[in-house]
Amino acid sequence: MNFNKFIDSPLFYRVIALVFAILLFAYTNEDKLSSTRNSTDSTMLANASTTMNVALQLEVNSNKYFVTGYPEKVKVRVSGSKAMVTTISNTRNFKIYADLTNLKPGTHEVTLKQSGLNSDLDYTISPKKIKVTISNRKTKSFPVQFNYDKQRIASNYRAGSPTADPDVVSATGASSEVNKISEIIAAVEIPKETKETFSRSVLLQAVDDKGKILNVVISPQTVDVKIPVYSETTTKKVPVQLVTTGDGDSDKNYTLSSSTETVTLSGTKSNLASISSYKVSVPIDGVSSTTTKDINLTSPKNGVTIVQPKSVKVKITVGDSSSGESTLSSQTSSSESETTSSSTKSSQDESESESQTSSQSSSSSED
Fold this sequence. Notes:
InterPro entries: c-di-AMP_regulator, YbbR. This protein has six helices and 24 strands. The chain is an alpha+beta fold. Strands 2, 5, 8, 10, 11, 12, 13, 14 and 15 form a nine-stranded mixed β-sheet that branches.
């Protein structure tokens, strides 16, 4: 009775309508899901191919032999189902190698092999064969040498002794190549006008006695190089040479003197080597009586950068000239010996001249 009432009620028809709606939805989407699944399966089963660059590995007794002539990488083309090709391309869990385990020193042609590729994949290695040279292995230690352009150091600066960390490296290779090594060089490129210590990591090269780069493995391949650069400036004490300049009174005699007998010059060592005295010019224009002047000292244009002290006091002693002509003289304790030497030389020259004149006169009388 109650069931009959439920069938006649609106709720019953609503439930029936909902059930039919669900069944209709399920039926419609079953076709779509089946179509999508078939499409996915078809895509995954489709064939594809890709080409990869793969590092070439060598199977050899590396403690005994050294191998040269082989390429670092080879090309591998794989073909098969798209899923498998995509997987192998992403993971690259396979290797290409050359089996040299049963070969002796010499040059050999070897067929490349693979390991790790799925048997369902087709592959092609390019090149298929390579030529390699197997040599007896040798390792030797060498100190690091340096090569750089000293002309790139700034003027008035000098480079000290370069250092490397580490300063001794090892070279490994075919015994014939290692035996040719003349030195291991760190070629350092320093900037122009370098004025301060220069540091850089530098790649090493092994060269023979003609400078040719050799095919060996250097360990470590790079070293930290340090080239100290310092100012070449030094100091030197030289005697003061007082010299009058200008025109004084024609009837006066001028004598110069100073308590400062030497000055200290700063400059490059090479330029200071050629300087034996420092000339101080003292103007006497308008000076008619004894006076003292402060003379500023300037750096001469010959590599001298600093003069100490910066000024000197010079006494200008003025006296009457007995000859009626202007006499300009200078005094300095360090130049007295040079004046004496010059006077002596002048006397000797005069004596030699007189001797030659007498000889010529005697010869003329005899004629």
